[in-house]
Amino acid sequence: IYALISLSFGGAIGLMFLMLGCALPIYNQYWPLFVLFFYVLSPIPYCIARRLVDDTDAMSNACKELAIFLTTGIVVSAFGLPIVFARAHLIEWGACALVLTGNTVIFATILGFFLVFGSNDDFSWQQW
């Protein structure tokens, strides 16, 4: 139960940094909210690979590697988008720093979720 509470706290802190980067009166630009799409998309390749993989199959390793590659691309894009916005003067650099901090916390929370609930025990995310 403590893991679930700490993951919820981490997600809330990460979203708070994202919202601060958008809604503070000195920034007041909501372009960084596009990283929410990356938060939703990042676990999908790995979840699909975990469903399709068979540990005895040689092809399963390639499927896992492709899923990790796609997830890495999504995560790098989530970190790159605020930097591109800041370089294009759509957002301020302070907002970019807040969004990057939020990205770090959110992706650490997603990683923590898969580390805590990723095993095949009685309470697993695969049941959902």
UniProtKB/TrEMBL annotation:
<keyword id="KW-1133">Transmembrane helix</keyword>
<dbReference type="Pfam" id="PF04133">
    <property type="entry name" value="Vps55"/>
</dbReference>
<keyword id="KW-0472">Membrane</keyword>
<feature type="transmembrane region" description="Helical">
    <location>
        <begin position="33"/>
        <end position="53"/>
    </location>
</feature>
<feature type="transmembrane region" description="Helical">
    <location>
        <begin position="7"/>
        <end position="27"/>
    </location>
</feature>
<dbReference type="InterPro" id="IPR007262">
    <property type="entry name" value="Vps55/LEPROT"/>
</dbReference>
<protein>
    <recommendedName>
        <fullName>Leptin receptor overlapping transcript-like 1</fullName>
    </recommendedName>
</protein>
<dbReference type="GO" id="GO:0005768">
    <property type="term" value="C:endosome"/>
</dbReference>
<feature type="transmembrane region" description="Helical">
    <location>
        <begin position="91"/>
        <end position="117"/>
    </location>
</feature>
<keyword id="KW-0812">Transmembrane</keyword>
<dbReference type="GO" id="GO:0060400">
    <property type="term" value="P:negative regulation of growth hormone receptor signaling pathway"/>
</dbReference>
<comment type="similarity">
    <text>Belongs to the OB-RGRP/VPS55 family.</text>
</comment>
<comment type="function">
    <text>Negatively regulates growth hormone (GH) receptor cell surface expression in liver. May play a role in liver resistance to GH during periods of reduced nutrient availability.</text>
</comment>
<dbReference type="GO" id="GO:0032511">
    <property type="term" value="P:late endosome to vacuole transport via multivesicular body sorting pathway"/>
</dbReference>
<feature type="transmembrane region" description="Helical">
    <location>
        <begin position="65"/>
        <end position="85"/>
    </location>
</feature>
<dbReference type="GO" id="GO:0016020">
    <property type="term" value="C:membrane"/>
</dbReference>
